[in-house]
Structures are given as structure tokens and as C-alpha cells.
Design goal:
17 helices; about 0% strand; mainly alpha
Length: about 450
């Protein structure tokens, strides 16, 4: 029997799925928007993420089968809705994996002062990374869990050391430069950080919230977890809590020490610019590399298992549901890896337009899953679910709040920016690339899979 992920491995996998490049490479975006209130913004974003994570955790106690949002929506609304959610999730997850792999390669080249726009270098690095991920996965869950846990502990250690070092500097020197960010000006003499308004607050909150996403994919591999119906509902909120403490600590000490560097630095690993010590800088850069590699390990675990779950339901060919002697879904992994490799390479690693599929798929999950949990709580379902203990707060109140917060997220999303291209004169032109990606991801591919699944069912 292949080793399955225990409770703490699920917690570490969740952390590994969430902490990526953002906290290392671009923590200044929120500071530039919210100024000295940035640490508090991260607390607000953590509460936002916790509401959604608790909702997904509540769903996982009713439906333990793999697939996450796909499995929850199918159980609540039926096969057609489940198919649409599953296909859009799978396509977006595959693309996101490819984009994360591209980011690892480009940022690594940047860190080592090599040309990140050299297609030969990027392609070689990209293929090497995917080959390493393939080897790790083919050794089975024991090695995969070890590598995931190791990378998670590595990135947490780097961030923890940074926080401790920052606290030492603050306490021993009496340093407090946080207010300086509120007085920064641009070349024209205008304040970079605008006075806080409701609109600015919401914008900053949403920017910080994206640093917490990734938890929604963890349950895709529930079939490889011990007692997922019990461990997932506890692991997801705990992981969000741990990450919230880390993010708050990092942003707080960075802004106390050198908020100007956090906002203005042109270095690849912006967080390292805050510190003068070469040792701390080296630890942060190493942590960034480990973090980027770790989140790719997590993606290589989640995404193929979603394909496997759909193959078991007849949406994909049955070959993608088969596992080898190491209990690894090889066919599902190869299919997902192929998408993750081919799509970025086809567009020469420029994924700005096509990433809209991933973003909208995430919104779709944040709308569908809360409604599914409410239906489960009320005893309504389209497929059999587990006889889980019901809780009015986590299964009704929290999902309603999650729906409301998601609507706020959708309302404030930069739709115009995503589907248009800004010209040199400031005018906007339609981004046909992004529009085409949306039509392919949300219309053509679901229709193709509907046809394929119906044909597979007839052949049976």
C-alpha cells in the first residue's frame, strides 16, 4: 500500500500550495497601495481567505472523493455543472502549473544575472524542471511527500529567520521607518501612497488576498490522503492561520526597517533589498528559489489528480485513471504535464492573456462551492455524500459570507484591464488573445469534453 499523506503533511502541502513567489518577489505592491497600513491589510486578507478556506473545508467533510471543487459541484448540482467546473478548473490548473514553472526558470535566470528573455535558456530550464518534477512524482507518494514537506519547511525557515532577524534589528536599534512610505513621492512630486479610501482599501485587500490563494486545489488529491473527511477540515484553516502570521511578520518588519526599498527596489527578490546584511539577503534569495520549486511540486500533485478524478467519471478516457505499481496516475500526470509544457512554449512563455482562464476559474469555484455547502447542510444533493456532522456556523453562515466576499471580489476585478491592451497614447484596444482564451477555455473545451464523455458512455 502506497503511503498516504497524514494530517501534518496535508498542512504542509497546503502551505506549499499557497506560499510561492509573491511574498519574496513583490510584497511592495500592497505597501504602495495601502502605505503604513499594509500589515493590517494582510490580516484582513487572511480573514477573507480563512472564510473561503473554512467553506472548502466544510465541503470536504461531506465529499471525500478527489477533485475538490469538481467533486463538490458534481455532488451538489449534478453531472453537467460538475463537468463544467471540472474542465475549466483542469485547464486553468494546467496553465497555472506551466506559468509557475516558467516563473521559476525566468526568475532563477534573473537572480543569476542571465537573460530571462533568452528562449533557448528558458526552454532548457523549463524542460529540466518538468523532468525533475516527473522523476519526483514517479517515485510515489512517499518521496513526493518528503520533497513537498522539505521545500515547505525550507521556505518557512527562510521567512522565519527573516522575521527574527528583522525583529532583532527593530528591537536593538529602535528602528521604525514605517511612516516614511506614506510620504514617498514620484518624479512629479505627487504622493505615491494615496489617502486611504474605501476603494483603495478594497483594492489593497484584494491584492493581498491573492497571496493566500492555492488552498482551493489541495483536496484534488484527497484520494492520497489519510481520512480526508476529517483531516482536510482541520488542515486548511490551520495552514491559513500559519501563513497569516508569517505574512504579517514579514511585511511588518520589512516596513519597519526599510519601506522605501520595499516599494522602489528594482531587484528580482525585492524582500532581500530591505536588509543590508549579505547573509540575510542570501537566506531570502535561497528561500525564494526553494519556494518557487516547492509550489511547482504542489502543482504537480494537485493537477494530475483532478484529471484522474474526471477520468474515473468517464469525462476523460479511462487510461488517465490508471495507476502504476507505485500508485501514481502516470497517464494523468503526462497529460497534465504536456498541457503545462506545450501552452507556455506555444506562446513563447508570454502568458499574460491566457492567465485570465485561471483567474476566472478561481472565481467560479469561490461561487459554486459555498452554494454547494449550503445545499449539503440543508440535505439537498444530486449524488451520495458522507453523513457528516452539520454545523450551522461553518456550513451556513460562513458560506454566505464567502459568497458575499466573492461578489465584492468580482465587482472590483479589473475586467477592462484583463480584456484590453493599453496603447502608448493611453487608449484601450480589445485584447483578442484574452477573449479567445476565454472562449476556448469556457466554451469550446467544455463542449468538446461533453461530446467525448457521451461517446465514452455509449461505448460502454
Amino acid at each position: 500500500m502506497n503511503k498516504k499523506l497524514g494530517f501534518w503533511s496535508i498542512v504542509l502541502l497546503t502551505i506549499n500550495s499557497i506560499i510561492g513567489t509573491g511574498i519574496f518577489l513583490s510584497p511592495g505592491g500592497v505597501a504602495q497601495t495601502a502605505g503604513s497600513k499594509a500589515p493590517l491589510i494582510y490580516i484582513g486578507a487572511a480573514l477573507f481567505a480563512a472564510v473561503l478556506a473554512i467553506t472548502f473545508a466544510a465541503a470536504s467533510k461531506y465529499v471525500s472523493r478527489p477533485g475538490a471543487a469538481y467533486a463538490y459541484s458534481r455532488a451538489a448540482f449534478g453531472e453537467k455543472t460538475g463537468l463544467f467546473v471540472g474542465i475549466t478548473r483542469y485547464v486553468s490548473a494546467s496553465i497555472a502549473w506551466g506559468v509557475m514553472a516558467t516563473a521559476v526558470v525566468k526568475n532563477t535566470l534573473n537572480i543569476f544575472k542571465l537573460d530571462p528573455n533568452n528562449l533557448v535558456l528558458v526552454t532548457v530550464g523549463f524542460i529540466v524542471l518538468m523532468a525533475v518534477l516527473f522523476i519526483i512524482n514517479m517515485f510515489g507518494m512517499k518521496i513526493l511527500a518528503f520533497m513537498s514537506n522539505l521545500s515547505t519547511i525550507g521556505k518557512m525557515a527562510a521567512l522565519g529567520i527573516t522575521i527574527i532577524a528583522g525583529l532583532f534589528i527593530v528591537l536593538t536599534t529602535g528602528t521604525n521607518h514605517m511612516a516614511e512610505v506614506d510620504t514617498l513621492t514620484n518624479a512629479a512630486g505627487d504622493l505615491i501612497v494615496k489617502p486611504m479610501t474605501l476603494s483603495i482599501f478594497v483594492t489593497a485587500l484584494i491584492s493581498a488576498f491573492y497571496a493566500f490563494t492555492g488552498f482551493e486545489s489541495v483536496a484534488s488529491g484527497s484520494g492520497d490522503m489519510e481520512n480526508p473527511e476529517k483531516n482536510l477540515p482541520r488542515a486548511l484553516p490551520l495552514a491559513i492561520g500559519i501563513i497569516a502570521v508569517i505574512y504579517f511578520g514579514i511585511v511588518w518588519v520589512a516596513m519597519m526597517i526599510n519601506p522605501v526599498a520595499l516599494v522602489n527596489s528594482k531587484e528580482v527578490v525585492i524582500l532581500a533589498s530591505v536588509f543590508d546584511s549579505p547573509i540575510i539577503q542570501g537566506i531570502i534569495v535561497l528561500g525564494a528559489l526553494v519556494s518557487m520549486f516547492g509550489i511547482n511540486i504542489a502543482a504537480s500533485f494537485h493537477s494530475p489528480r483532478l484529471a484522474e478524478a474526471m477520468a474515473k467519471d468517464g469525462i476523460l478516457p479511462a487510461v488517465f485513471a490508471k495507476r502504476n505499481s507505485k500508485d501514481v496516475p502516470v497517464g494523468a500526470f503526462l497529460l497534465t504535464a504536456a498541457l503545462a509544457i506545450i501552452i507556455p512554449m506555444s506562446f513563447q512563455y508570454d502568458m499574460k492573456g491566457i492567465m485570465i482562464i485561471s483567474t476566472i476559474a478561481r472565481f467560479l469555484q469561490f461561487l459554486v462551492v459555498p452554494v454547494a455547502v449550503i445545499l449539503f447542510f440543508r440535505g439537498k444533493k444530486n449524488e451520495e455524500i458522507l453523513d457528516a456532522p452539520k454545523n450551522a456556523f461553518t456550513d451556513l453562515v460562513i458560506p454566505i459570507i464567502a459568497l458575499a466576499l466573492t461578489c465584492v471580489l468580482l465587482y472590483n476585478f479589473n475586467w477592462v484591464g484583463q480584456f484590453s491592451i493599453k496603447q502608448a497614447d493611453g487608449s484601450l484596444l480589445p485584447n483578442y488573445f484574452a477573449i479567445g482564451a476565454m472562449l476556448i477555455g469556457y466554451v469550446l473545451l467544455p463542449l468538446l469534453f461533453v461530446f467525448t464523455s457521451k461517446k465514452a458512455q455509449k461505448d460502454k
